[in-house]
Structure formats: structure tokens, C-alpha cells
Model the fold of this input.
Amino acid sequence: MKVQAGPRKACQYAIAILVEAAYVLVMAGLALLVAVIAEAILR
Amino acid sequence: MIIRPRKDDHLIVGKYIGKIVTGIGLLMVVPLVTSLAFAEWDTALDFVIGIGACMGFGFGLQTICRTKKDLRWGHGLVVASGSWIAATVLGALPHWLSGHEGSYLDAMFDIMSGYTTTGLYLIQDLDHISYGLNMWRHLLTYAGGQGIVVIALTFLVKGTAGAYKLYVGEGKDERLLPNVVGTARAIWLVSLTWLGIGTAALAVTGLALGQEPVRALLHGLWVFMGAWSTGGFAPQSYNTMWFHSPVYEALCIIIFVAGSFNFALHWALWQGDRKELRRNIEIASFTATAFIAVSVATFGLSHLGVYPDAVNLFRKAFYQVMSGHTTTGFSTIYSRAFVTQWGPIAMLATTVAMAIGASACSTGGGIKGIRIGVLTKAYLQDVRRMISPDSAVVVGRYHHIRDMMLEDRVVRTALMITMAYVTAYAVLTVLGVLLGYDFTQAAFEGVSAASNTGLSCGITSPAMPTVLKWAYMVAMWMGRLEFMSVLALFGHLYAIVRGK
Done:
């Protein structure tokens, strides 16, 4: 397997980057939920 | 019996350190060009002197140490740790010549902090340093994140068997491709693609925030380098708080979390294996520990009523704790706010997050998610063994790129390195307390240095005790190379003196 270029590979790489970004957004969503719960309980 | 290194051993070590220092000299061409482009003649001269010193030393060493013998494992470890020292001493020249550093020690501190992607700094009047020097600060943190050995492997060292030993010596042991030079190039492909996309996104956001085009582009590039390398350097003294933008912060988080991923995981995703993100033990470990740390910090801050509502609470807690957990060191609060506003619970959660750190074979530091995952699995395996019948064979497995057996050898290695980190954290904490700092603050700053994070609660400053500057520098160096290479260098020096 070699480092490859080309439109198909570029699409694959772009999807991989979006997947990584989506992971962070899911984590952020969970953190926001925790903040809402914390404020509801402790305020 | 300890065997004294032979002449050939010195020649091999010298030759490869020479190559890597030459690489650092070549890297300085980028800030030199930046300085020339902005007519910063004094800064350009500083870099000409720096390049001259690196090239003179690098080529001189290669000329003196001519040998055709290839590296052995011990050599690779010694070269990796030795080259970081040489690169720090010589790389500090432009910083020191700039007049923004209090001493040559401060300049070396900043360079070591940059290479090791830590992000603590002693440079003064950061908001008014030249474009060239800012480019150098961020470039060296980007290069350090890749690994300065990876750079040498890519450009200067041909694909010899010894190349892999250099690569491992720098704390990276994943082969993305069968050939180690191919692996180094794959790492570059991932990083440079992210560089293009991340810089563009940050620059466009900067433009939308009202920055001038050139400034938006440069800030985008530098903030990207600080985020992706989990370095934490930023062009302004207020770090990323300076931008006061939720969009900028969101982009930073995406970039530094991605930067904290194992390059092998990136490569698996890039090859279309999206299940790897769900199955990988490092991601499972990181997700669990990050969630716990963010939750504890959030509840601690909510209890103190520091922020007016849930959204502001989330924005500050998530950014700071994720920045700590990925060992980035970006912050959107003042350093002293950790002490004056956050209180001990949130500070402790951030400290533990920094201690655990990012993924192995990434740009990040700390104990690493894979070791936490492996040790957790080992504990669970032992519990299963205790509650199983005597005749039962309990086998542990984990998934990292491929399914692996949880062997005692793997657990032992994970435990050894974890213990080394914990010892470093403890030593720095005790030293901080002995020098008169509060325990929580000493622990926070010490863990931040040894885990290569760079978040500061205010201890790190040009006025801090000299002994602490040295201690943090050594901790950054040892932490980044995961101790083994540094211990090999000490062993090499001991063998020179006491070997037979």
C-alpha cells in the first residue's frame, strides 16, 4: 500500500476529516448536556 | 559488565545528530523568508546567524563523523534524545538575539517548549514580536509535533534499516506503511492536508471577525500550527481568548482533538476504515476520560457559580479541559483565573486530564490513552481471573488498528511508562511546593510541563526560580520522548565514563 493521490482518494480523505470533526461535535454535544444538567441541579 | 562505546558508536551518533541539526537549519529558512517579506531586517539577520550556526554545527559533525555503519537500537535512542538537546541550544539563537528573552536559558526554555509541543513560554512582550519570530515559534512547534526525526527521515535520511530505530527513539512506534520513510511521508500527507483546510477555515473566520487579510492568514496558519501540534503557542499573549469568537474556538477544538489522534488511526480512517474510530481502544479511553474530566470540571464550576448560564459554562469548561486532555494548552481564560475562579475541583479535573494526555504516536503528550486503556483492560482481566474457576483460561484482547492479545509484556511496558510519568509529575509537584507554591498550583503547572500541555496557572514566568525553569525543561524533554530515549542517553554517557 502506498500514499496515493487522485479524486477518489481525495474524497475518501475529505470524508475521513469530516468523520473526525463529527466525533468532536458529538463530544461537544455531550458536554453541553452535562452543563445544562449541572446548572439545573446546582442552581 | 557495561561496555564502553567504541569509536564507531560515537561516529554514528554524531553523524545522525549532525543530519538532524542541519534539518533544523533548513527549517529556519522559512522564518528568514518571512522576515525578508515583511522587511524585518534585524530579525532576518538573527535567522541568518541561526542558520549559519546550525549548518556549521550540522555539516561539521557530519564531516567529522563519517561512517558507513548503520544505526543500532541504542544509537537510535541516543540520537533522538541528543538531537533534541542540540536542536534546542542552537534553535534558541534567533530568540535570544531578538531581545525578547530575559536570558539564553529563557530562550532555550521557549525552544524546548516549542519542539516538545508544550506551549509554556517565557518570551516577553509577545504581542509585539516580529512576524519572522512568530513564524519560527509556530513552525518549530509544528515540526516538533511531527517529530524532528520524522522531518529528518523524510528529507535527509535514506530508507535504511536504522531509520526505523531513529523513529522509535522519538517515541513513535507505529508503522502506517511497511517502509518507515513511507510512514513519515504518510504522516506529512495527513498533517499538510489538515494544514491547508484548517488554515483556510481559521483565516476566513479571522477575516469575518475583521482582521486584515494578511494578518488573518498568518494568524490562521499560526493558530492552526499551535492547535494541530497540540503545542499551544498562539501569536497573542491572551492566547485564543484574544479572538473572542465561538466559531474560532470550535475550529480550534476540532483541530486540536484531531491533532491528538494517533497517526495510525488517521491513516486507518483515511483508508476508509471508519469503524476504527468506534473500535479503537485509545478513542474509547480518551472519550471516557475526557467525558469524566469535563463533567467533573463542569459540576465544580457550576457549584461555584462562576459562569452566568449553561452555554457559557460549557464553552469555558469544554475548551479548557479538552485543551488540557489533548495536551494542547490553548486557553480562553486568563492563567490566574484557574486559581482565582476555577477553584480546586475544576483545576484537579484539568490536571488529571493533562496527566492522561492524548494518543500515542500523535503530536500530543502525557501518559497516553492507549496505556490507560491497556491498564484498565488488565485490571478487568485480573478481576475476571479471580472470579473464574481455577481451570479457566482468561484471555484479554484489545483493538488498536488490529485485534491484539493483552500480553503481560504489553501491560508491563504500559505500566513502566505510566509510572515514569507519575514519578515526573510527583517530583515537579514536590519541587514546586518546596519553592513556595501552593500544592494545587504546583501540581497543575508540573503536570502541564511533564505532559507537554502548556496550560499555566501563572507559575511559569520570566521571574520564576531558575531551578524550576531547568526542571520544567528537562521534564518537557523527557515527557515528549517518553523517558526511554533520555534514559538511553544517560546510559550512553555513563558507559563512556564507567564502561570497559
Residues 180-208 of chain B form the longest helix (29 residues).
